[in-house]
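pinning this so it doesn't scroll away 📌
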Amino acid sequence: MSQNIQSAESLVNSKVEEPKLVSNLRGIKNKLMVMSGKGGVGKSTVSANLAAALARRGKRVGLLDSDIHGPSIPTMFGIADKRPEVGEKGILPVQVADNLKVMSIGLLLDDPDSPVVWRGPAKMGAIKQFLEEVDWGVLDYLIIDLPPGTGDEPLSIVQLLGKVDGAIIVTTPQDVALTSVRKSLKFTEMLEVPLIGMVENMSGVICPHCNEEIQVFGGESVEKAAKDFNTPILATLPIEPDVSSSGDKGDVYVNDDKSIWKEKFDLIVNSVEEKFN
């Protein structure tokens, strides 16, 4: 009898061990996804510059490149030749600055030209490892750069995290891009991910002579999608050659030049800070 009582007491007093993924991400205040309906719309450029801008404002930021087949974040930060180390609490993401750290499958490949030929379960396993075994530490923001579309990676992220604090969807003004982006908007709705807003990228070109913006694609498809899904357009970003070259040269973090693009991009950063402050 006394043995049964002791067993019951020990059962009551014992702590239920929480899942490793939950405990590993406990120090992260806000988890954000950056999505797009199709490739080539500048989603990773938005992710990288958002992470860099928040870090420059003093926030502690982690950036997870979850694009298994086409990782570009390491190149944008000039860390493609770096390799993560292993610490006491897990894999250490690569530090870009004191308050900005990055993890990507691209940091684990010996040959950057080697394709990652994985099916869904292998990709989900890698993403789980990035969330569960990477020592992210204490962060104000974990920004997750997703591959285009609504397939394995976005679904895995949402299912593994359980709660995503917000999503930003990047598109261009072309109707063909908007056809796909509406599916991303519907994805966030179906999975109950709070939508921070949309970013219209490549909305025009800044004339180098008169500094006026020239519309390239035209149309009002982005405005219609935003209205249909009751979400704001956070910014309309023009095509800016210097932004593209800074990513190619790997100096996204250090590049803080004043430009029309930068002024408009700050609207995105302001919206993120306003939502979570």
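📌 and the second one:
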Amino acid sequence: MTNVEKERHLPAGRKAQLAAYVTEAGQVTVSALAERFGVSIDTVRRDLDQLSADGVLVRTYGGAVSRSTITRTDRAVDQRLSIQEQEKEKIAALAASLVEDGSTIMINGGTTTLALARLLGQHRDLTVATNNLLVPAALPTSAVRDIYVFGGAVRSLTLATIGPVSFRANGGAELDISCDLALIGVGAVAADAGYTTSNLAEAAMMQEMISRAARVAILADSSKFDRRLFAQVSELASADYLITDAMPGPDLRDALEASEVELITPASTR
């Protein structure tokens, strides 16, 4: 074994202790782990990278989170922003490539769709309708012609509105609206359950966005594969695209192909 290989090899005792600590804490920083285990920050970073590669935990910017934390639903936005951050950026960049100048898009709540909004700076003349209260400020001003926010109750946990996907004219009549592309972040994707989320009202709102779209792109990182949450948003076939950071397993991949959903990953676009 070379010196580099020795350096990268985790002693079994420390590996188990570090994994157990992250599992118990839920979310940790590199500096806190270095202090607790009496090793350098660079050593902790290497340890976390290896544990992440082994599927024991998930690396975040400046630290790591446990797998159990990833599978918890309904975390606050500020917590979710640091989870799967690099994966979300990759997904957002791929999703932005589907947006056409001069088009109308709908964007739902969530941190992946928020990352998408920030990456639309190369676009022009967009009309954006959303229930994500963070999106209007995140959108580059040069990219948008009009921004509309759906009304309703505000979920403080997710900073998104819950209500009808509609707007009313001054006289009170409901206006018929549609979009060219709906970009929908979901909580889970499975071959049998389709796209699901943890909140019933959000699921209903996402369903309605999908029904009003000419094309639908589902955004979900690979940690959400082969899981089912409380409320179904739709079957797999309701989407034209599934945009993700890594290829799913064979069962989900086959189900997506059978449903004629185009799978878009960083590897597929090379």
